[in-house]
Amino acid sequence: EMLRVEQLGGSGEDAVRYRLTGEDGHSIEISSELSYAETEVALGRIADFYSQVPDHLRGELDDIRLAEGEKPGSPETLATYGHSTRGKWSCKRQTDSEITFYHGLVNLTESIFDHECGHAVGRDLSLDNGFPNGWEDAIAADGRNPSRYGATEPVEDYAEFWTAYVEAHQHGSDALAELQAIYPNRFAIVDAVYED
């Protein structure tokens, strides 16, 4: 897919803004605090990751921010997880359609990008809890979690399974069949959303 990147100018506090537009006409805005060289690498990665998002789901992601520093801690995360997340996590969803990646290029990986896209899609499917109807039943029926982090709460389970699904999708039908055999109930839900 051919993607177009255009620089929009500064956005204050030394960040530079860009717009990445896909062939489908949907675009995302990217704000970068990184050096010019790091931003060039980041734009290439984002273009690659974004080009793999199905057209009908691209509207779930509108803004990406690339931050040089660490993620600030917050009282909400302290209350939710029992510890400060200051500097520990790679990114944060500012809104349902905006993601901030911290620590420069270190955390701008395909798996983290896919995980955060999974959150964006999950929030769109259910404004109340961040995962589609029937997800908790699918977790129980499948009887295992896609990762330790996914086991922390259903919303993270959804994002982690979304990531596993996207990776399997990229590796072809054998990888998809293997994932479906291990997690048939989750697979049915995510496959319906992804292939819509």
Multimeric status of the protein: single chain
Fraction of residues in β-strands: 15-25%
Terminal residue distance:
20 Å
Principal-axes geometry comes out as globular
Quantity of strands, as a count: 6
Strand line-up across the major sheet: 1-2-3-4-6-5
Mean pLDDT: 85
* SSE string, helices as H and strands as E: EEEHEHEEHHHHH
- Give the biggest sheet: 6 strands, mixed
Give the fraction of residues assigned to helices. 40-55%
Whole-angstrom Rg? 17 Å
Describe the protein.
With 196 residues, the chain is of the alpha/beta class. It has 7 helices and 6 strands. The protein has helices at residues 36-51, 75-81, 110-125, 135-142, 154-171, 173-182, 184-194; strands at residues 4-10, 16-21, 27-32, 63-66, 91-95, 98-101. A 6-stranded mixed sheet has the order 1-2-3-4-6-5, covered by helices on one side. Strand 1 (4-10) and strand 2 form a beta hairpin. Helix 3 (110-125) crosses helix 5 (154-171) and helix 5 (154-171) packs antiparallel against helix 6 (173-182).
Question: Brief description of this entry?
Answer:
With 196 residues, this protein is an alpha/beta fold. The chain is built from seven helices and six strands, in the order E-E-E-H-E-H-E-E-H-H-H-H-H.
Topology:
Elements: E1 4-10, E2 16-21, E3 27-32, H1 36-51, E4 63-66, H2 75-81, E5 91-95, E6 98-101, H3 110-125, H4 135-142, H5 154-171, H6 173-182, H7 184-194
Parallel strand pairs: 3-4, 4-6
Antiparallel strand pairs: 1-2, 2-3, 5-6
Features:
single chain, 196 residues, alpha/beta, six-stranded mixed sheet, 7 helices, 44% helix
